[in-house]
Sequence to fold (796 residues):
Amino acid sequence: MTRPLSPLAFAIAFALATPAAFAQEAATTEAQTLDTLIVTGTRVADRTVAESTAPIDIITPEVLTSTGTVELATALSRAVPSLNFPRAAINDGTDAMRPAQLRGLSPDHTLVLVNGKRYHPGALVNVNGSQGRSSSPVDLNSIPISAIERVEVLRDGASAQYGSDAIAGVINIVLKGADHGGNVSATYGQYSAGDGSQYQVLGDAGFKLGEVGKVHFAAQGGHQDQTDRARPYLGTVTATSAPAGKVVQRYGDPEVDNGSFLYNGEVDIADYLTFYSYGLYTQRETLSNGFFRPAGDSRNIPSIYPDGFLPQIFNTSTDVSVSSGIKTFTAGGTNIDISYTYGSNELEFDIRNTLNRSLGPTSPTEFYAGALEIKQHVLNFDFNKQLDWGLAYPLTLSYGAEWRGEEFTISPGEPGSYVNGGVLLPGNAPAPSGAQVFPGFRPSDSGSFDRNNISVYAGLEGDLTDKLSAGIAVRYEDYSDFGDTTTGKLTGRYAFNDAVALRATASTGFHAPSLQQQYYQTTSTNFIGGIPFDLVTFRVTNPAGIALGAEPLKAEESDNLSLGLVLTPAEGLYVTVDAYRIKVKDRITLSENLTSTAVRTYLNQNGFPDVAGGRYFTNALDTTTTGIDVVGTYTWNLAASKLDFTSGYNYNKTEIDRVAENPATLEAIDPTALRFGRVELGRFEVGAPRDKFFLNSIWTKGGFSVSATATRYGEFTVRNANPALDQTFEPKWLLDLAVSYKLDNWNFSIGGDNVLDEYPDEVLFATSTSGQLPYPSQSPFGFNGAYAYARVAYSW
Fold:
């Protein structure tokens, strides 16, 4: 069906025509985000967005809640053109803790701060076929939108300022901290397909603590039903296939229950001493689906599931974060900030609607499969002071030290989740071990692993003249497991006049190999010729993995260059254009499964009789990412109303410069072994959209506002082991609309995301599971279709 009007044209027409019909008299101009003081990427106290030496976006609560989503990562992906957040499906734990990519780099190349303090990563390491495979990033959705004052997104390397992970940039979440006011809201929505209904209730309120303190509380909770875009089986019907013409698979967003509570406060103990603290607790329960086991499948027991079964993974993710500190100053003008931050994430795996085939008809249908947990402790001493060196303005000297301790724990599942009970298949063939869809972690996989590091850093920045600003930063870090590293950064900004400025940065950065990447291990049993063999995701210290070439992981290192143009040619118009090149050396990724006969024979003859092969993490790739970000805002004041426009564009390309040769030990075992295939390499080079564009317009008149956003997601490619089955998915336009009306303290909104009901291209029949999974899970906007919602809010 052809559409006579493109989504972009529709959005512009909608945005321009609506106010023209109502405009009557001039409106008061509101404060611009350009004048917002920033705290990310600088320690100068009065630096604004417009004066920043590096590109930075300010995302307000109004932007975060301007669409139907209540997920922080989804909201950010709609507001930041270089942020990609696909909705993985049938990817085990990744369904519950989806990773986001900034500037096309790994999800753990973006550092996340809360109130300027390092936030803990998630316990999960992504090992399945999603974008961000091999990474162990922060779970952005563990932070409730109800608690956020603003989000500062620094799109620039900042390891010299903040340490590990800040290769692609920094996301700093600034929490609400007012001592008065508050807001409560309720949202309900559903997809046009009739599923995925969800409700969310949010609230926050500020209070005074006597005359010397304040505290702000926030809470959020809700439920989301799963979506399902699976289709009937279209292949040849056999005794072991899915039934024809009947939908038995589920494919879409999981079922989610979530709840969060947060406080943020401070107390002025004395005129020169302030105590501050925030605390967060979030629990999220996620029910996701595996692949359907037909009734006649050898993995099924018909007496338990006469029609086959769809195994499910029930994940419980629990996040805790507490940060406390004191701020003071000396008589010499040195500002001191001493803080301690604790964070943890635990991810439990319960397997439902399943069985352990090797236990026979008495097999339970639910198992506890174990848990992953990461804990992080950060002790920080930060100092800064102004130096008057006779320049146009004082310079800001900053320096400090930080200690960080981390611990990663794998807890085993109950025995039935991983054992082989010895019951044979028909024909006396051995049965697979463990719970279907996700065998539990074994005692041999479990353990606790820790490390610590200490860092010292210093920086000097300021306005050298009325036109020239500059900065320099250096940081040294020493890790207990892989060694030390030093990073540096130079920044500069020159304002030719009030309308044109040029900025540039050059920096080095690094990402320390996470404990999850170093020590994650899981084992599954396969029977080869009737003999059980273990296929293992090896931790890098596993002797069998070392025999196949596993080595201690090194830090990923980067060189970042960026050049930007800042334009304010007219009142209300602000445009930034920032080009960048990021070279990353020794990127950490997960190898292919090494399971050839030569590998198995070698392992069996050299002390590993039960191991048939596996995979491991390794520093094997060098990449270069080049791109450009364009962001513009414009306010058009009309007779009795105004129009606010925001537009963003990102072009991003990653090329692989080097793929490491096979280690000598692996080459000696099997000269034909392939550690990295084209599917994995394709995830880096073409798996994310090449570009992304959005145009948002908001018309306001009194208490009435109308918002329209058109977004274009560029093409991406999913590679197959067989190049003939590669598929490139074409660009797609999405349109979001919303109408709001404010009456006294009340605000009423109705809206629709993806109102034109756009879907990604369908997966070619040859590469799908006989038609049951019609859409790619790599799609940057998912594959759920149109979503309608209503929201009511009360503020005071």
Observations:
- The chain has nine helices and 33 strands.
- Residues 7-795 form a domain with the Maltoporin; Chain A fold (CATH 2.40.170.20).
